[in-house]
C-alpha cells in the first residue's frame, strides 16, 4: 500500500524489515529521516524504536507542514509500552484491516451507512445467491490477502501458522517483555475457542495457570497486533442489570478456524460448537470494517442484560441513533430470534432505527416494526 502511495506522491519509501535500513534508523534516526524527498513513507516503523519516533516528532515540530511522513506498521505502534511518544496532535491514525467482503465483491454499497439513513429500503432486497455452505467457506478462507488468493486449505493453514509465529516471536517480542511466548500462543488459541464470548480473565487465568494481570496484559498485546478486538458493553443506564464485560472477537475468522482446527465441512456438521461463534465474529468483523469508512462516526458495542435478552452488536451514532444486529448460524428464523432486538427497540423508542437478524438463509423477511431478517450476504451484496 505504501509503495503504491509512494508511486503517486514521488516521495521516499523505506521499510524497516530491511536490516540495513533498520540499523541506520536505530543508530542515527535524525539523519535517517533527513535523507530523501518528502513525503517519507516508512513501513514497519515500530521496528525503529523509540528514538526514531522522537526524531520524527522533532522534525514535525520544526516544520509543521502536514503530510511529511506516512508511518505504517503491523501493530498499533504508537500505543505500545516500549515507546515514550505517541505523537499526540501531530499524527492522524487510520487502521487498515484485512479485506472486507464488500471490497472482495467490488461493491460500493455500504450496508451500515444505508441502514442508518434508509433502513426500510433494505427490506426490498431479492433472494441471496449465497448458500449456507458458502458462508462457511468464506469464514475458513479468512480475509488476509495471501490466504484469500490461495485455493488450498492446506496452504492457508501453513500461511496462518507461519504468520502467527512471526507475530508472536517477532512483533510482540520487540515491543514488550514477555516471559514465555508459548503462553501467548495458548491464550490466542483459547481466545479463538471463545470468540464472540464475554471476556472472563479470572477463568482464563485459571485455565492457563497464569496470573490474572498477566492474562490482561497479554490480551492487550494481542489487540495491539490486531489479532483480537474488544467489543465493549453498551449501556444508557436502561437497567442496572446490564453487563459491563466486553466481548472478545478474533479479528479474522480464517485465523480463528485454523486455531480451533475446523474447516468448512466441520462447520457444516450437525454438531459444531465453533459454528455459532465463528459466524457471529464473521458478521461483527465485516460491520467493524464498514464502520471505518462510514461517512459519519459509528461506535460498536454489544448489549446483554444479566440472565436476560442480549444483542450481539449495537451500532451507535454520535446523535444517539441505534441499530442492533443479532447473528444466527441457522437458515430458518422465527420471532424468538428477535427477542433481544425487540426489548432494545421498546426501551429506546425513536432512537432505535432498526434491528436486523443476520442469518444463513436466502430471503429478506420483515418481522414487524423496525425488525428484519436478512441474509448475511446482504451486508455486502445488494
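-> sequence recovered:
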Amino acid at each position: 500500500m505504501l509503495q503504491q502511495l509512494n508511486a503517486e506522491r514521488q516521495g521516499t519509501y523505506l521499510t524497516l524489515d530491511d536490516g540495513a535500513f533498520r540499523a541506520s534508523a536505530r543508530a542515527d534516526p535524525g539523519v535517517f529521516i533527513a535523507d530523501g524527498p518528502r513525503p517519507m513513507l516508512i513501513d514497519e516503523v515500530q521496528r525503529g524504536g523509540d528514538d526514531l519516533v522522537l526524531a520524527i516528532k522533532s522534525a514535525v515540530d520544526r516544520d509543521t507542514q502536514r503530510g511529511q511522513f506516512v508511518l505504517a506498521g503491523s501493530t498499533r505502534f504508537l500505543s505500545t509500552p516500549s515507546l515514550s511518544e505517541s505523537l499526540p496532535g501531530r499524527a492522524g491514525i487510520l487502521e487498515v484491516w484485512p479485506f472486507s467482503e464488500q471490497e472482495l465483491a467490488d461493491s460500493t454499497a455500504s450496508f451500515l451507512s444505508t441502514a442508518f439513513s434508509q433502513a426500510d429500503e433494505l427490506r426490498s432486497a431479492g433472494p441471496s445467491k449465497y448458500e449456507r455452505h458458502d458462508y462457511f467457506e468464506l469464514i475458513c478462507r479468512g480475509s488476509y490477502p495471501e490466504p484469500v488468493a490461495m485455493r488450498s486449505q492446506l496452504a492457508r493453514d501453513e500461511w496462518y501458522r507461519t504468520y502467527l509465529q512471526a507475530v508472536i516471536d517477532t512483533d510482540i517480542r520487540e515491543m514488550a517483555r514477555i516471559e514465555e511466548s508459548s503462553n501467548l500462543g495458548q491464550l490466542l488459541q483459547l481466545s479463538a475457542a471463545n470468540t464472540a464470548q464475554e471476556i472472563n480473565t479470572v477463568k482464563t487465568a485459571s485455565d492457563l495457570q497464569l496470573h490474572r494481570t498477566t492474562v490482561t496484559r497479554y490480551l492487550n498485546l494481542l489487540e495491539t497486533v490486531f489479532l483480537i478486538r474488544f467489543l465493549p458493553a453498551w449501556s444508557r443506564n436502561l437497567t442496572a442489570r446490564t453487563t459491563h464485560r466486553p466481548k472478545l472477537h478474533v479479528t479474522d475468522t480464517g485465523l480463528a478456524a485454523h486455531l480451533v482446527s475446523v474447516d468448512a465441512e466441520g462447520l457444516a456438521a450437525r454438531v459444531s460448537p465453533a459454528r455459532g461463534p465463528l459466524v457471529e465474529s464473521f458478521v461483527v468483523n465485516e460491520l467493524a470494517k464498514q464502520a471505518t469508512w462510514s461517512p459519519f462516526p459509528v461506535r460498536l458495542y454489544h448489549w446483554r442484560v444479566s440472565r436476560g435478552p442480549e444483542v450481539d452488536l449495537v451500532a451507535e451514532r454520535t446523535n444517539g441513533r441505534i441499530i442492533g444486529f443479532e447473528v444466527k448460524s441457522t437458515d430458518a428464523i422465527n420471532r424468538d430470534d428477535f427477542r433481544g432486538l425487540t426489548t432494545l427497540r421498546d426501551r429506546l423508542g425513536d432512537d432505535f432505527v432498526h434491528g436486523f437478524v443476520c442469518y444463513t438463509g436466502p430471503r429478506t423477511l420483515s418481522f414487524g416494526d423496525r425488525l428484519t431478517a436478512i441474509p448475511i450476504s446482504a451486508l455486502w451484496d445488494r
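The chain is about 40% helix and 15% strand.
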